[in-house]
Write a structure and sequence with these properties.
This protein is α+β, with helices and mostly antiparallel strands. The protein folds into three domains: 74-176, Immunoglobulin-like, CATH 2.60.40; 249-628 and 866-877, TIM Barrel, CATH 3.20.20.80; 634-857, no CATH class. Helices cover 15% and strands 30% of the residues. The strands form 15 sheets. Strands 19-20-21-24-27-29-32-33 form an eight-stranded parallel β-barrel, surrounded by four helices. It is globular. The two termini are 41 Å apart.
Length: 883
């Protein structure tokens, strides 16, 4: 669904339906899903102070009549929120909150009062209903610009909202920060404080409960337990009803939530989005979620709500405490006070005991709901860089040569480096704060990665050629002094990085049922080093990007995978994690995140401020999720149609936040002897190459040349504009990184480098994937650039392949290699010429095609990738139980 700005609310009064009060019922259970009889429940209205009570029967069941509205006169059947975006060009949304299931009809009416489209004619579901209009009429024809009415009718009640359709309406972004539809819902419905109590259990208090029109609500009570989870030989374990501990293999997922148009500090998700995402995670078969930092209170409220409703199989939380990267000094000791303060803040928030004032870039609010019982452990910190460790160790040893041990209240360490001592102190502070303030302890770790592992890697070049095996942090020496949840090692370990995972001869001897697997060798060796200490993969996974930033011995590369391959490889990885007796792993990640950057695409990428406004399908780091974000179908009417008038009939063009599109209509089927050439001039008609690869003279000098055929479609770039080797600094002198005037100079297939000077690897992205509809053995993939279907060809080219630095800003690469800066230029639009290998066709667009810039993310839909369904269908068949 789309992110919605809830600008206003219309209250609809039903004349015939009494929904002022509803029956609320459910069960009160403990964490082992056992019923709790004779538990008392109290619902106190936050506005009137009126209290409603109930008690559970022998089966833990309760029931009571609870008003949904404060006053009997306020009987309502549904609530209508405003239309968004408005004005719109592609899609707009009508949002209805139904207090009960009632039949409704949603219509689009033009300015003449004619109904041009019935969008919806069915019962509304209880809760939120999202109804989208794509600007088309009942027959699928595009409606002209102008004012329209979106109208909902249910029984005798009708509500209408005006909406303006413009062909080039300004892009509408997403709502950020702490605005949530439930904030508006609270203004019109009753809100309660809920207290649930039973002898022998902790009192449960929910300070702000909204029934939401649902009739069933379950509650979970926990025993007073100082050690609900602990580490037990290789695994984290949960206390059972008989006070023994049962090991858990963690099959978790990392909860990144940076939707298009947002950055991590926004934490912009609404309650409704959290509910949907947790449901997807749960239905896929995951048992835990990991957060890196503190979220807004609404996330923890939804987590508690979700786990109460799924008490037989809850989603356990692995909560993080972030260590700032923007530190004043690389000396870790100078960040101690700030980091300890962050630890205390997170612990207080998890126990419902902190109010944080408004601040920029971080979550804030009133944390008054105790969710600590849903937390199985904490991972604090981040991937610390080798230079930070080297700097800290050298400086602190110089100041204090005896800084090699620490004897704390809960942890101690000997024969340690100052950095290891620093981590031991932070872990000890964490455990002491939690134990002294809240009389509780759960397993604890700090984030690490292979770059700092305690192993020696003979294949890795020494510093300064490489810093990947330069230093280490070894907390296997950490000892438990006083009873607590224990320590477990946590690594972000992927199958393609660093190089030693692929190159060490020992690791390369390993294989699994899929084939050679040096990653399995690395995990086996690392786990053997830690012995019985639990080793958890805090991150693992492969992305479904078009570009491949790093090759892997196992074939599980840093990108270059289809969504299907992504799913298969992620199943392979969790199998590897399980068979090496690791404690489990957290798949990275829930969703694609457009804000992310990486070295592979950085030299021709947009600035941080604008990166989240468009989708770079080439970048591996943007495409790790199993949720993708798609805008509506490209509009091929925004630019004039090009009549080629030969066996190639017509050409149309379009764009979206990810691709530039070319649609060709043919008068006959393309055959194996045909080649269609498309010359693309991306900026400045006076720059570029004048001659195509086949010797054909171009109408307009161009930077790119696309060869469409049914055996090997290729995308070429002029030698001058070629960026091959740009990141590593070993491009040829003839590569200017800008378009120049050339006549008969070479055309190169678009390629990227994903290795170092000494280890050059080539990613030939210009060799385009294609789908041939007439081939019964062919199936479309998420990486296909060319689609052949009957007498139609659709081409989609990622912006990055065309050296478009930032499509949202109309910005293309136009560099001066003589400066340190990377120069760009605002394009004057694309000009395209189409011709064939028979030289029977040749036609160019008359005008340059320039798309409007946008400053906010386009409205989008969430789409589950093919990889999600592979995971969901595979997990039940995997025996992911602790050994």
């Amino acid at each position: 669904m789309k992110k919605i700005i809830w600008a206003s609310i219309v209250v609809v009064t039903s004349l015939c339906v009494n929904v002022s009060a509803q029956i609320i019922q459910g069960y009160v259970r403990n964490k082992w899903a056992q019923p709790i009889p004779n538990a008392s429940l109290q619902f106190t209205s936050l506005s009137s102070g009126k209290t409603f009570t109930a008690r559970t029967d022998a089966n833990g069941f309760y029931q009571l009549n609870l008003p949904f509205f404060e006053k009997e006169s306020e009987n309502r059947s549904f609530l209508v929120f405003d239309v968004f975006p408005n004005p719109f060009s592609r899609e707009t949304n009508f949002i209805v909150y139904a207090l009960r299931s009632v039949r409704a009809t949603v219509s689009i009416i033009n300015r003449n009062g004619q109904i041009v489209r019935i969008l919806y004619n069915a019962p509304l579901s209880e809760g939120y209903n999202y109804i989208t209009w794509d600007g088309l009429d009942e027959k699928g024809a595009e409606m002209p610009e102008g004012m329209y009415i979106m109208q909902i009718t249910s029984g005798k009640t009708t509500v209408a909202k005006k909406v303006l359709r413009l062909t080039n309406a300004p892009s509408s972004g997403t709502v950020a920060g702490n605005l949530d539809p439930e904030v508006l819902l609270e203004t019109v419905v009753a809100t309660y404080q809920v207290t649930v109590e039973a002898p022998g259990y902790k009192k449960y208090q929910n300070p702000k409960f909204i029934p939401q029109g649902k009739s069933t609500h379950h509650w979970v009570l926990f025993k007073e337990d100082t050690l609900p989870f602990r580490t037990v030989d290789h695994y984290l374990a949960i206390r059972k009803a008989d006070n023994t501990y049962e090991p858990i293999f963690i099959n978790g997922i990392c909860l990144g939530i940076s939707t298009p148009g947002t950055n991590p500090g926004n934490l912009a998700a609404t309650k409704e989005e959290y509910r949907r995402w947790l449901t997807l995670i749960w239905e896929a078969g995951f048992n835990s979620i990991r957060t890196y930092t503190l979220h807004y209170p609404r996330f923890y409220e939804v987590l508690d709500e979700f786990n109460r409703e799924h008490f037989e199989r809850p989603l356990w939380l692995m909560q993080g405490v972030w260590l700032d990267e923007e530190l004043s000094s690389p000396n870790l000791y100078e960040s101690s006070a700030l980091f300890d303060s962050a630890i205390a803040e997170v612990l207080d928030c998890m126990h419902g005991n902190r109010v944080i004032g408004e601040r920029q870039g971080r979550a804030f609010g009133t944390y008054n709901l105790d969710v600590s019982d849903w937390i199985m452990g904490y991972i604090i910190g981040r991937e610390v860089y080798p230079d930070e460790i080297i700097y800290t160790d050298s400086l602190m040893l110089h100041q204090n040569p005896n800084l090699t041990f620490y004897n704390g209240k809960f942890f101690s360490i000997d024969s340690a480096s100052p950095s290891e001592v620093w981590w031991a102190r932070r872990l000890d502070f964490f455990m002491d704060y939690q134990k002294s303030r809240y009389n509780k302890s759960v397993p604890l770790s700090q984030s690490s990665w292979p770059t700092l592992d305690p192993l020696t890697h003979p294949s890795e070049p020494p510093y300064p050629i490489s810093s990947e095996d330069w230093t280490q942090v070894d907390l296997s020496k950490l000892k438990v002094v006083a009873p607590n949840g224990g320590y477990f090692a946590s690594y972000h370990a992927y199958p393609y990085y660093p190089d030693f995972i692929n190159d060490d001869s020992l690791y390369r001897t390993f294989s699994d049922s899929y084939g050679p697997n040096s990653y399995l060798g690395y995990l086996t060796t690392l786990k053997n080093y830690y012995g019985k200490k639990p080793l958890l993969l805090g991150e693992y996974g492969v992305p479904s990007s078009w570009g491949n930033a790093h090759y892997a011995h196992s074939g599980m590369h840093h990108g270059g995978h289809t969504e299907k391959q992504q799913g298969i490889y992620n199943i392979r990885l969790i199998k590897n994690i399980h068979q090496t007796r690791c404690a489990g792993g957290y798949l990275f990640a829930l969703m694609d995140e457009w804000f992310k950057t990486m070295w592979y695409t950085n030299p021709i990428g947009s600035t941080y401020a604008r990166r989240s406004l468009w989708w770079n399908v080439v970048s591996a780091e943007e495409n790790f999720g199993f949720i993708s974000f798609q805008t509506d179908t490209p509009n091929f009417k925004i630019w004039p149609e090009l009549s080629v008038n030969c066996w190639i009939d017509k050409a149309k063009f379009s764009y979206d936040p990810a691709f530039f599109y070319i649609q060709l209509k043919l008068k006959r089927d393309i055959n194996s002897n045909d080649s269609i050439w498309v010359a693309i001039d991306t900026y400045d008609r006076f720059l570029g190459e004048s001659t195509a690869k086949n010797g054909f003279k171009l109408d307009s000098r161009s930077e790119f040349l696309l060869n469409i055929n049914t055996t090997r479609p290729l995308l070429y770039i002029t030698e001058s504009y070629d960026t091959y080797g740009i990141y590593h600094g070993y491009s040829e002198p003839t590569q200017k990184y800008r378009s120049t005037i050339t006549d008969g100079e070479p055309w190169n297939v678009v390629r990227y480098t994903n290795g170092w000077k000494e280890y050059i690897d080539i990613d030939s992205v210009g060799v385009l994937n294609f789908y041939l509809y007439s081939n019964p053995l062919d199936t479309p993939t998420s990486k296909d650039a060319v689609f052949f279907k009957n007498k139609e060809i659709l081409v989609r080219i990622p912006w990055t392949y065309l050296n478009v630095v930032d499509p949202s800003n109309q910005e293309v690469l136009d560099d001066d290699r003589g400066t340190k800066e990377r120069e760009t230029r605002i394009t004057d639009g694309f000009q395209v010429q189409i011709f064939d290998n028979w030289k029977l066709c040749s036609r160019s667009t008359e005008k340059r095609m320039l798309w409007p810039r946008w400053d906010k993310a386009w409205p989008y839909n969430e789409r589950l990738k093919e990889s999600y369904f592979i995971l969901k269908n595979s997990y039940p068949n995997l025996d992911l139980k602790p050994f």
